[in-house]
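ok so i was messing around last nite and threw this chain in just to see what happens. nothing serious, just curious
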Amino acid sequence: MKPPTAGYYRLPTQVSHIGSALSQIPVKSYLVGGVLRDSIFGTTNPDVDIVVVGSALDVSKKVATIMNGKSFPLDTSRDIYRVLAKVSETEIQIDIASAQNGISSDIEKRDFTINSLALDVNDVDCNYGVPQFEISKIIDEHRGIEDILNGSLRMTSSQVFKEDPLRILRGARLTAQYNLDIDKYTETQIKESSSLISRVSSERIRDEFLKLLSLQQSTRNLTKMDQLGILTNIIPELEASRETSQPPSHHWKVLEHMVQTVGQAENIVTGKQINAGPYPKFILKYIPSTDAHLTYFEQNYSDSQSRLTFLKLACLLHDVGKPKTKTVDPDGKTRFLGHDKLGEEIARSILKRMKFSNSGIELVTNQISNHLRPSQISNQGQDPTPKAIRRYYNDTSGASIDILYLNLADYISAKGPKLTQTEWIDHCRKINIIAKSESSYKRDENQAKLVSGHDIMVGLCLNPGPFIGTLIKDVEEARLEGLVSNKKEALELIRHRINSGEYIA
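result:
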């Protein structure tokens, strides 16, 4: 397909404010990269990249002054700075880089053709306050517009991945985000270079991977990552699960099962069949009401990502402990005893290595450690008791709802096309009972405990040790059951249980 020679494309509103500021500075300035690419794709990119033929440091300071914002360095060695400003309550982010040798020198350094576009800021039209550009004004030295229109991802040179291996992961993310086909030569280079990603800092890998994981069609996207050799180069711990077989009741081997679980979590949270697969059509009919929970999962939780993204991350890692715990009984029965707890340990190690926040690590590992709990809360065909539900919410505090959805997604992807309507209705009934009990049994995170370890040791003359933690936990369970309401009652309950032989202090 030949690129159009005429036609206008809209730009984000903030470009008009940025252009106005740059017009007051005597330097040649260009819009580059994503903001132009997304305008042609018909989407909006709130972050604007500018290249100046001059000092990025000087320009960023002047732009910040004009827009009443702040500037700070991103990479002083390459003369790259960021300006943050606010216009009419709208946050504006501008990254300004230097191209002392002209715009062509900057374009040559770009990773993919769809990102190698440039536009002189003076060529932005602001008719009726709406910034736009005429496509014939675009500087397009690598046929990037043609690749956008053809839906193709193509590298700009053979050195792209050697110069910055993170581009391997970014290529996978762009492919997923815009539903692109990877050029054959580019795909070959990605596969051959995938091991280079180990050279990239953990923080950069984390941020790019989370962006990819936040996109829809997760099963398709992760499968493509794996085919390109990227997934297990980012998380080597997943490789052992690739050929780990499961009992006949499971449809896939462990790695594929985890990838499928990610997609099913996306489906049941949104209430939509986003990820196609060999699944029965009745699945979405019986899941918990998703209105309030969808809002819950859309919350920005940590690392600039939503709870849903962290749920999907937990799904991807939830059975990572299975390869090391697999045993086969003499009668041929396959077991993975303790894989949930070992999986928690392995996941914690992975997330620490990738420099996740402490809150993000705790949310994911809590889900992995407890992902079997909703299935084990009652016997098959029986409803969970109030006491069992109370204990569930107490033990899983901070991730109780997340775990329910992980459990549902795990159940679906384990069975796959073998899932029957009868067993799914039974499982969903159990999950619904637990979910609807949230307001009654969810522990207030900010509520002070009735007794401290010091209170117990002084009040009951007990020595320090892990036993004290058990007593505190039991007191909080008793509070949820309405058995105690103050410190005196709590200490009396502990004394009674010790004297009756319930505890061995």
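not much to say yet. The chain has 25 helices and 15 strands.
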